[in-house]
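Weekend entry, working from home. Most of the wet-lab plans are on hold until the incubator is repaired, so I used the time to fold the two sequences that have been sitting in the queue since the last round of cloning. Logging both here for the record. First:
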Amino acid sequence: MNTIRTTTVAAAGIAAAAGLLALAAAPASAAAPHGCASSSVCFYLKKTDYDANRPTATYKDATSGFQTLGARAKGAKAVVNNRGGRVQIRYLTGGRTYTACLDARVTWAPVLPEYTVTAVRLETPSACPPRP
């Protein structure tokens, strides 16, 4: 059976799921951190895309469920949440599915090599569990 586990990821820390999620807060003064427009969640297939501030895919529309990522986002090496609220990112590792909740204005970079990012969920209000 494929289990889905949820982890909350905050700008101020590192969360554990099937390993460590390395995260850094986006600068408060940056209007478009790493080229990610306001109210967007951006994906970067390669580190060079992230370093060049060139998202390979951008998601903005809120939906009631997960949006399966297309070829320009699936397996991304970095994710930037430049929305005002938390979003969920689904990824696979070791044959299991996990969901990470990214706080507003958080960058997840680098995504660990053993993780394959597969879906995003943008909802208002967020489906992420309340913070402790």
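Second, folded right after the first finished:
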Amino acid sequence: MTRSIQAYFHTENETEDVRIKLQKYNIDQLEIGALPEPLHKKVPLLIPLASASGEETGTAGGSYAGGSLPSSGSAAGAFVGFRSIDQLEHDSNHDGVDDRELLYSLSLKVSELDYNEAVKVIRSNGGHVAI
């Protein structure tokens, strides 16, 4: 049995990146398209998953440009924090939500077994999944 997923992205590059990452799952009828107009803000969506950059091994909530911040001690470098500079640039009112419009869609059918993992891949790579 398959389930449908409809996701939205800010850029074509984000959409294509997720399409490539989803290739390892049992997917059917995958389509990408530009929306004729930006998605209305009132459409209910699962927002992207927030994550600290860097690897998940021993981080203390942030990362440096060259790797993870150790949980003890100090390290030299440019601390980025929980959000990347690019994310901060797209949040003009500092409410934690990307202010850019959603302009691209990705729709697909995925096997029931892969559904949760596919949604996780989409959300952890900047996608907004329709509820």
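Plan for Monday: verify the second prediction. The first strand starts at residue 2 and ends at 9.
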